[in-house]
Amino acid sequence: MVRAYNFSAGPATLPEAVLRHAQEEMLDWRGVGASIVEISHRSAEFVGVAAQAEADLRRLLSVPDDYAVLFPAGGATTQQALLALNFAAPGQTVDYVVTGHWGKLAVKQAAPCARVNLAADGGPGYRDIPPRAGWSLSADAAYVHITANETIHGVEFQDTPDVGPAPLFADFSSSIASAPLDISKYALIYAGAQKNLGPVGISVVIVRRELFERAGQPRAPIFNYAEHAAHDSMLNTPPTWNWYLLGLTVKWMLDEGGVEEFARRSAAKAALVYGAIDASGGFYRNDVVPRVRSRMNVPFFLADERLTADFVAESTAAGLLGLKGHKALGGLRASLYNAMPVAGARALVDFMGDFQRRHG
Ligand SMILES: Cc1ncc(COP(=O)(O)O)c(C=O)c1O
Description:
The protein is of the alpha/beta class. The protein folds into two domains: 17-255, Type I PLP-dependent aspartate aminotransferase-like (Major domain) (Aspartate Aminotransferase, domain 2, 3-Layer(aba) Sandwich); 257-359, Aspartate Aminotransferase, domain 1, CATH 3.90.1150. The chain is 34% helix and 16% strand. It contains nine helices and 14 strands. The strands form four sheets. A seven-stranded mixed beta sheet has the order 2-10-9-8-5-3-4. Strands 11-12-14 form a three-stranded antiparallel beta sheet, with helices on one face. The protein is globular and about 60 Å long. The two termini are 33 Å apart. The mean pLDDT is 97. Pyridoxal-5'-phosphate is lined by residues 10, 75-77, 102, 147, 151, 171, 173-174, 192.
């Protein structure tokens, strides 16, 4: 069996050690006689798995005690739809800073139940983050929303912006756990799991508990974060398999050295790939302002775009998967999440050099 290097943007590569661990426990979870995904979510065994995943995630991300950690089913988009519903009063303004595709979609999800103020928009090209001084924040916003890392446009906040007294909400779907983060600067962060945390089908929401005091808007209990918190994210049957794999992935990150280590690896991988692009004499091109280039997702283009299909076909044949760019942007994209080893980035860079020699 040969595992390729998988640069897919998500669902994305998982640590081999996690997959092997899950494989070993698949038929009989620790002597129970059934797999963890075949037993009740209320069983002592699964409740233990869930609690351990939360404890490990809290440790990995240094989550302060006054924050709840939720594990809702569904992806980041579902959370985007729930933010205004839970934390904005009907008709209240919410501020959105849009720095790419996913920020734009977050606005669409909030729009039906809040008055969205586009405080800043880096479009149409989304190659830079609009300077903070130019943001038009509202005086009475329920929250300010940013996308910490834009998975398609490859634009990443390098620091937490100061938005004054308004609670800061951030979509960390594609960069969570890739560097140390002071969570106390945010009122809420959320992430779909399928990039850095595990498999698709579960999300993580980390929210300052005092936000639960907000009435929000009329909503069913299943759309109410406070209810989820009160029931340890088991208001209904949770995605137990995903939660279990997330727990294994988080444990793996702790064992590997935690977020400090992944920040080092991420910097090394990004330096390799951007270095190769910038040294290619224009054969490859990344359009993002270097200051805000994403460490996680590197979109790039060939000067001769007719070669893109060849690049995808040849790289796939060489055991480098998932390099085709998102349809919204075209071109190519290398995602360098925590489970991608530095050796994978090196293999990509070697391939890029080889491809240039043959086609340049
Ligand atoms: C930054 C970001 N936000 C939101 C989403 C949407 O996530 P989901 O498909 O889990 O709803 C994605 C998906 O790739 C993303 O990268």
